[in-house]
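ARCHIVE CARD
SHELF: 3
SLOT: left
DATA:
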Amino acid sequence: DSKMKPGHTVQFTGLKGAAHLNGTEGTLVRFHKADQRWAVRCEADQNIVKARPENLVLRKYEPEPRERHRRRRPGGDGPTEGSVMAAGRGADCKEEYYLRTLVALGRQAEVANKRGRGSNAQELVAEAVEAFVDKGEMDGDAGERFVKHLHRRTREEEARGNRTGAEIMGFIDSVLVTKIMDRLARQGPKDSRVTLPQWLRGSLAGGMKFIETMDSEGAHTARVAASEITRIVDERE
């Protein structure tokens, strides 16, 4: 398919030798002319596989220019263009675009931490979440759609055994609650009580469950327990 480009997200279909990949997604890396196959990075385990174009369905979302955001480089003296925006390209909806950029930022920062480059993963992710909130991208129905999408994707990553992805998403969820409450407080009268939107109650309940469970049962068990209580509250609301 001439419309397919490196960086686009695709869904596997019709595979026989690797039928377990059918229905899952990956990111196009490069096209090998010699065997007429795409190299695709699988979303589930980050492995590279080759597939014919006819076994790939394009799932693409290109953000509008206004959706670009800037972030500060650790130790820098001013804002610089964030390289993580490219990670969101290929998403099939705006909510997934936002989520991918945030998760990619968290992964990049964690790698930098391990290499001793002084990047603080949590601060960078929190800053990016704050940028989305301050732009009004999480106001009203848009915020509700993103939060519900985030909760669903967190459970999917847990089901796949992708603990790192689920942990990053859980952190995004907890930061989001704080940043949205801060925004609501700034918008309302001084010293007035902030009323949490109904669609954020699942996030708040999940965060409280995580804190309750982590010390006694560990981070992974706490993350799964938090996701379950989030699902229950979401369905109730």
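SLOT: right
DATA:
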Amino acid sequence: MRRRGVGGVAAINKNKLAKAKFAEKGTEIAEGQVSQMSQQLDEFRTKLSDFAAKHRNEIRKNPEFRNHFQQMCARIGVDPLASSKGFWAELLNVGDFYYELGVQIIEVCMATRPRNGGIIPLEELRVRLTKAHSKTREDVTVDDLSRAIKKLSTLGNGFKVIVVGSQRLVQSVPVELSMDNTAVLQSAMDTGFVRVKTLCDEFQWPADRAHRSLEQLIKEGMIWIDSQSGEEDLYWFPGLFNSEK
């Protein structure tokens, strides 16, 4: 058996020492970079707060300016709406803006629910809300509505924005739409109504599957049945044909 020479052991130890120093240096560099990035982020947040204080009124009144500010906040992980009593809310009163908007959204949805079954296009909601509060809501956008509704979702699953095709709808009833329910809704987007035969032809469903999905939506009050339209019943989504022009 060959014995490892003293020089070989020294070389191994030297190699281990070098690796340890490299690892130590790497950790030092990484910590330095993290510290530098953290410092830069703090500086940016400080500048952002200064910017927000300076342009407070414009952020509240100008929807385009407000949207750009929200995007700036998102890039650095700041949520001005995270807390109604937080620093940003106090600085901008932006929490009050979205809180008041949320209350008005609830009012419109509750007032129109008997007619639309709890489904209303986002744009129609904006139009109705603007008309009802013309002195204070001329500048509200669908983006503002979406943000306010997102905050309302903390109250439960009663309020949410759902996307059906190219249309954004506001759902204000506490029910989870299944994939079949959503498919039925999408089928009705152009006409406002569906037929059982239409669903069977469009989605290759058996009739009982179409009836089951429609019955669920009827139970939740989202659709109305028209039994006087001819040979086959029509199932109307009032929220899709009751839009204000």
